[in-house]
Amino acid sequence: MTDTDAVVIGAGPVGLFQVFQLGLLGLRAHVIDVLPEPGGQCAALYPDKPIYDIPGVPRCTGRELTRLLLTQAQPFLQTVDSASSNAGGPDAPGSPYANVHLGQQVSELARAEDGRWLITSDRGQQWRARAVFVAAGAGAFVPRSLNLPGLQDASNVHFHVPEAGALPWSGQHVVVAGGGDEALSTVRSLTEDTNPARRPARVTLLHRRDVFQAEPELDAAVRALIAQGRVALCVGMPTDAHATEGVVQALTILTPEEAEVPLTLDHLLIRQGMSPKLGPLTAWGMALERKQVAVNTATFETDRKSVV
Asked: What's the predicted TM-score (pTM) here?
């Protein structure tokens, strides 16, 4: 149980700026986010694309905006060493801040006996706070999967690439699933990484067709890697996953010629973007109108007192 003045749900731009605002008022805040890194939608959906509508910032990327917000909030973030970092999910490198909790989702929002709010995450962590700020936008952003049985609990299925540190697939065969900017940029960075602790021995790009939905420059760069034999391309739809004791060993791929072929792998990295899910918010007991949280527009407080 962690006692604090406020809990902010969502570590996107609004959530990170909220920590700064609360800090100016002398209030301690803890932040919770389902993603393995701060930045929310900006970091998850367009980390390297230019953004032009941030007040006072003519141009920046989602990743740069996140760094600026973290720098601004730095006086109110509790730095910890890596050994005691509050690691998030299995792919999360862990937050370097004791009051930023990544890779977990708020599962329950209830009143404590003393009248404060009791917030519980799906990882079993709990916080007790006088106020809760919901900065979750359209909902919790979760990665799109391949929707195959056997993938959910597999230890070698991943959705994120940590920015720093060694990677679990170093020196092994990694299959990257997807055909958009996210998947192609991942293939390019893994292949061109000079750090042996992060570079796979083999990289295969898996996509349903031999046409990508990526920026022309990125498309050309990955096509060049495929032509050079540095990246293998597997075209087809995965129809089955073969797993043993929680480890996926191969996928069955249905090719455009309607032939079924096996694709063996050591690790599967699914990079098919994120999708917002309102589901978690609907379980917190707040009134909803047209799939949106109803608030008092004068204070932006919900029908649950001190939940904003």
From this structure: 0.70
| Architecture (CATH level 2) of domain 145-272 | 3-Layer(bba) Sandwich (3.50)
C-alpha–C-alpha distance, residues 212 and 189, integer Å: 17
Look up residue 214 and give its amino acid: A
Burial (CB < 10 A; 0-12, 13-18, 19+), residue 257, is exposed
The CATH code for residues 2-141+275-293 is 3.50.50.60
pLDDT per residue over 163-183, tens digit each? Answer: 767 888 999 999 999 999 889
For 258-292, the pLDDT digits (tens) are 999 999 999 999 998 877 776 667 778 888 887 77
* Chain centre to alpha carbon of residue 152: 16
Task: List, as one string, the DSSP characters of 159-186.
Answer: S---SSS--TTTTSEEEEE--BHHHHHH
- For residue range 121-146, list pLDDT tens digits in order: 988 999 999 999 999 876 667 778 89
